[in-house]
Design a protein that fits this description.
The complex is a heterodimer of chains A (about 260) and B (about 280). Chain A folds into two domains: about 120 residues, Rossmann fold (3-Layer(aba) Sandwich), CATH 3.40.50; about 90 residues, HAD superfamily/HAD-like (Rossmann fold, 3-Layer(aba) Sandwich). Chain A is about 35% helix and about 20% strand. Chain A has eight helices and 14 strands. The longest helix of chain A is centred in the N-terminal third of the chain and has 12 residues. Chain A is globular and about 55 Å long. The relative contact order of chain A is 0.17. Chain B folds into two domains: about 130 residues, no CATH class; about 100 residues, 3-Layer(aba) Sandwich (Rossmann fold). Chain B has nine helices and twelve strands. Chain B is globular. Classes of the chains: A alpha/beta (about 260), B alpha/beta (about 280). At the A-B interface, helix 4, strand 10 and helix 5 of A face helix 5, strand 10 and helix 6 of B. Chain A: It comes from Fundulus heteroclitus (Killifish). Chain A: Keywords: Magnesium, Metal-binding. Chain A: This is Haloacid dehalogenase-like hydrolase domain-containing protein 2. Chain A: GO terms for molecular function: metal ion binding; phosphatase activity.
């Protein structure tokens, strides 16, 4: 590790890394406890846009993970900050269950389009409506651009394909606030008080977790759970610092090699 | 040439064709055939059958009376060839199925050639075109302008077929961004093509305009080389962003295109940038 400063923070993806829907990755709870005994800050970063922070927290606590709400940083949090900053009134194409994270934001006469993971809204009529707004000048904000995610019944389209389609239709570029944007990672680290070179990211998405983190100056560890598919480690340049079977293996490596 | 209204080049998308003669009279002398787009050129879509563009019925009649070969190409994928030719005949056009080239028959020829079995994500009205096609155990996906059929569930199904293939193949019948109907702008097949391309990290094969292979198949049917045919079409809606009203049908108002072309006769470079097959 010559040239790198000592590790101060570990960012951990949630869905696909610590758990898959309502099932914890085997050994993940113990691994997290061991990590907490080391002198590193731990933050949970997620592009999950189907659930509010409160719901995420409840699920993780029910699965016996030792987690506090303030340790969770989501792309919804990042989107909300942007809306407040620019004073946009959004058409929120997000799951109903996440609307509580936008409480207090004015959504009357929307002049911006916010797209999250919302299968119920990705129908022809709603996308036409969003498209017409964008043609009329509404900015397109993407909570993230994940290509797909893993559900119990198999892989399913994420918001990325629909954002890409609208960008093509309206000849515009979306502002993406979630992973793998650099700003997402630096914002996640900002209240930990360390620089990216002092942090490592663990996740199951080669491009969004590992690629994004490494692009921001962090180390990236790819785990072979969740949406991981054979050969994903070849999809980032540079390749992941480490590819391992699951979160407990990633933690072992960190404890033995990076502290 | 004895044709009225005169045919000219409309700027569209990019197939690079070299030109040796920039003057219109020169071009016209070596013409042997004409390919006409349908929507936005012969008729405007809308309620019911739509409306024939004034003068177009007579113009087609005159073309047929000349010694020029005539074919029609279109990216129409909401109905079978038989159905929309019947519509054009009801509007008064002298047109037959054998003269019309939409993407679906071209796609079926490609499937046959390459031994492919499609999963279809197309408009209900187009399904009969594929009745004789083996759709079991699909090893490719075809998307058309499916309109209401572009539900999340249907797109997910198409995505799952592609992501499960060792060598995923996606055919898109056209790549348009949007078009105008009476109740407003609607997203076109190209948008969903891009969505699946992004999801699966692949590149779709476009069947239909502006694919050169598509035009070549029309020329092949006419027995002509690219330098012997001229095409007239309306460009896709690719410049409307802010302000202005998009024209009827699929693209800008052909009447304003016409006026613009008359004021600015096509230069060599502009013609090279168009997807027309131009007389040399």
């Amino acid at each position: 590790m010559a040239g790198r400063r000592a590790l101060k923070a570990v960012l951990i993806d949630l869905s696909g890394t610590l758990h898959i829907e309502d099932t914890a990755v085997p050994g993940a709870q113990d691994a997290l406890n061991r990590l907490r005994q080391a002198s590193v800050a731990v933050k949970f970063v997620t592009n999950t846009t189907k659930e509010s922070k409160r719901i995420l927290l409840e699920r993780l606590q029910q699965l016996n993970f030792d987690i506090q709400e303030k340790e969770i940083f989501t792309s919804l949090s990042a989107a909300r900050s942007l809306l407040e900053q620019k004073q946009h009134r959004p058409l929120l194409l997000v799951e109903d269950s996440t609307l509580e994270d936008f409480t207090g934001i004015d959504t009357s006469e929307p002049n911006a389009v916010v797209i999250g993971l919302a299968p119920d809204h990705f129908n022809y009529q709603t996308l036409n409506r969003a498209f017409r707004m964008i043609l009329d000048g509404a900015p397109l904000i993407a909570i993230h651009k994940a290509r797909y995610y893993k559900r119990k019944d198999g892989l399913a389209l994420g918001p990325g394909p629909f954002v890409t389609g609208l960008e093509y239709a309206a000849d515009c570029k979306a502002t993406v606030v979630g992973k793998p944007e650099k700003a997402f990672f630096t914002q996640a680290l900002s209240d930990v008080g360390c620089s990216p070179s002092e942090a490592v990211m663990i996740g199951d998405d080669a491009r969004d977790d590992v690629g994004g983190a490494q692009n921001a100056g962090m180390l990236g560890i790819l785990v072979r759970t969740g949406k991981y598919r054979d050969g994903d480690e070849k999809k980032t340049d540079p390749p992941p610092y480490l590819t391992c079977n699951s979160f407990p293996d990633a933690v072992e490596h960190i404890l033995q090699n990076l502290l | 040439m004895g044709l009225a209204p005169p045919l000219w080049v409309a700027q569209a998308q990019s197939v690079h064709i070299a030109m040796a003669d920039t003057g219109w009279p020169g071009c016209a002398k070596s013409l042997k055939g004409v390919i006409l787009d349908l929507c936005g050129v012969l008729y405007d879509s809308g309620d019911g059958d739509g409306v024939a563009i004034p003068g177009s019925i007579e113009a087609v009649k005159r073309l047929k009376e000349s010694d020029l070969q005539l074919r029609f190409c279109t990216n129409e994928t909401q109905a079978t060839r038989e159905k929309f030719v019947a519509k054009l005949q009801r509007l008064g056009f002298d047109i037959s199925v054998a003269e019309v080239f939409p993407p679906a028959p071209a796609a079926i020829a490609v499937l046959k050639e390459r031994g492919l079995r499609p999963h279809l994500l197309v408009h209900e009205g187009l399904l009969p075109e594929f009745d004789a096609v083996d759709k079991t155990n699909p090893n490719c996906v075809i998307i058309g302008d499916a309109a209401e059929n572009f539900s999340y569930q249907n797109l997910n199904e198409a995505f799952r077929v592609l992501i499960g293939l060792e060598r995923p193949v996606l055919f898109s019948l056209g790549q348009g961004r949007y078009y105008k109907e009476t109740d407003g702008l609607k997203l076109d097949v190209g948008v969903y093509m891009k969505a699946l391309e992004y999801a699966c990290d692949l590149k779709a094969e476009v069947i239909g305009k502006p694919s050169p292979t598509f035009f070549q198949s029309v020329l092949g049917d006419m027995g002509l080389k690219p330098n012997e045919a001229k095409r007239r079409e309306t460009p896709d809606c690719d410049r409307r962003r802010h302000g202005g009203q998009p024209g009827p049908g699929r693209g800008r108002d052909p009447r304003s295109e016409r006026a613009r072309s008359l004021r600015n006769p096509p230069t060599r470079r502009r013609l090279e940038q168009s997807s027309l097959c131009v007389a040399l």
